[in-house]
Amino acid sequence: MAHIGYVDGYSRGQIRGWAIDLQSPGTRVVVRAEASRGMPWRQTLADRYRADVHKQGIGDGYCGFAIPVKWFSPGVRVRFFCGGTRHELGRILIGAARLKATSFRKGSLVLSLDRTSPAAGLTGWALDRVDLGQRRRLLLCANGRILATQRATLFREDSLPEGGDGLHGFSLPAVAAVPGLAIVDSATGTAISLV
Amino acid sequence: MDRLRIAVIDGLPTDGWQGPIHVLQQAVRSLSRSGHDVIAVDGSQIRPTALPPLLTAQNRATPTRHMLASHQAAMQLAEKAPDIVIAPLQGGLAQAVLMARACGEAFTRTRIALWRNLPSRDRLVGEDAPVVDLSLLVADALERQCLAMADAVVADGEFPLPPGPAESEKPLPHIASRRVPRPPGPPVAAGIHEIVFVGTFQRSSGVPEFIEAVERLEQAELLAGRAITFVGPISDSRYGLSREWLGQRAGRWSFRFRVVPEVNRDAALDYASQPGRLAVALSPVREELESVRTRCPQHVALVARPMVDDDLAPRLVAAISAALHGDAPGDFALESEIDWSGVVDDLLGLPVRARPTVTTSLSVCVLHHDRLALLERALASVPEAIEGRDVEVIVIDNASPLNDIRARIVAAAGNRQGLRVLELTERIPQATAYNLGLSAAKGDVVAFLDDDNFYVRDGLARLAAAASVHDVVVTNLEVFDGHESSASSGRLLFLGQAHSAGLFYNFFGDTAMAVRRAAFAAEGCFHELSCEYPCLDWVSLAKAHARGLKIGVLQWPAVRYRRDTVRADIQAAKLDQAGARALVFGAYRGHFDAEMVARYAQNLELGDL
Fold this sequence. Notes:
Chain A is mostly beta strands.
């Protein structure tokens, strides 16, 4: 058995990842999630389509899994295994702050950017701590050109500690990482350079 | 008889066992011996490399495996143009072949027959295999479609199964196959010291009846020290028959017994075929016992329906007793085989179906909002005429914030003839806009297209032809990301008539469809509310299905469908899946198989015990 896979993290209430047996890529793999503190283990079948994995030439792409976060108590560490050899795919701490985020604070503006490349799309959240009801309108700019705009109103649970209602998320489209690429808060002109 | 090209589609997933079971192996052997060119298609194995990724609304491989296999089989067989296709009813593997023929895309000279085995509905409703995904509901939808479109059902003339509810919807010609004796096998060696039950450890495999029979044999002192073995998949689940259940049941047994957990069918048969072992297996379908008969020299293989046949335990007692006394198996089903040449003769007597063609006038409604560059591409994909008939184009401009929008649209259309623009000054819901187009259209067949999608070459012509024999025709979609010249990112498959599976996901189709105006308008058009709502296509097609409209699906995509994952991710309507399901449920108006859905729900609830 030659299992590979990855635990991506969690979003929208689901822990997501993928797993495949390279020696039998058409056979769907059972992923077992084991939590600390004596919680019962859970398992699920990795048979959801993952275009990103498929594009890497791995199997037929039907190897993704999703496990509800609510199955586990906050604060527990969950390890993910598959196959008879218990190949470990990864581990995750439930309820911990979202990983891979970079925060910027300028005046009362707070912008949290998920650490992904611009070519994969820019997601995160932005808010004004002085006026939380004022949703930020963000511009994605490069050298004075506006490439995209969006009002940050998507739900992001990880923005709640800032005191708002969580509806401060944004999802800007994928762009090339050109020099001068920046996210600009349209109301204040505050610019956060991305490249 | 002339040498025919006969395709046999086979390979059904089975509960618990690793890999599929092939119920038509004997047909392949027999027809090959008769000199025909037999193409055996294993529905569980085919992976046509030329195809893009196959996607469905559910996006999971396991519940939709029959749907994916059916489509792959059709793509594989299309170039071979078989004279006859034979496939088992169970699993609905012939659905895509049948649908391609019904829509006039392929197989137009092919006769297609179903081998009548146990429908998935019967398995879901009547058996105890744990069903925790939609696979049997998806398979049921495929099977119902197969029964509606096939030329004939081939039934075992000696051991016919009772017809299921789906077959009463539109009875098909039944070919009751004849049986011919087969040469006797090698003599059976005497001396049995172990009785081996081969099968999934569940009620519907006959485990309780087997145990009952063994206990009676022990009472009658016929076991005489022989051991009992259960070989096959066994669950640790506490919800059904399990090791825990067996342990409690076996508390009063005095005979030796053991469990050999095994998910590999070949390994299980290897075990049961060893000298001194008597293999015991049960199934309502004779073909499923074929491997036991051929692999295990000492066997009791009963054609029976566990949980239904009330004389099964005494029959088992009698059959096992006879085998222990050295009598050869006396089951006619296993001493004979289907006369497949006779079946083929009967199939050749059936008429070849007429290929649908464009017979009526055609209008295309294109819905547009502020995307002129994309609209231009969409309009360019609409031919001026199809088979000599002019195509009317209606652009419904849903309040684009542009001056001179009419002139701009006319320019985008290249000043084509037969163009009309419905200019809306206030934005209205998509369903209302499409219904406006439908009422304005003059064509008997009306196609709908969003401005960011476009037809592939001959796509509209195929939609129009299929609409001559369907009330609604949807199409599998060729999905692409980014620029229109991008390679396909996947092929999104639909079922059209999704039956009960359509309650859970949109297996019906997309609004990139064509309708026969009179039929679709009479049944309420696109479902309208006074506001936008999620999944207009799903709700409207569920409504059409519930009202008895016939929905076809083009297997080869007629439309290139622009996927905008970033935009889709931030569309509120796409997130409201609970609302979509509530609307879909209302649209069905109870026209689903309530018994089957209830049984599925009953299974899901086991997880909360």
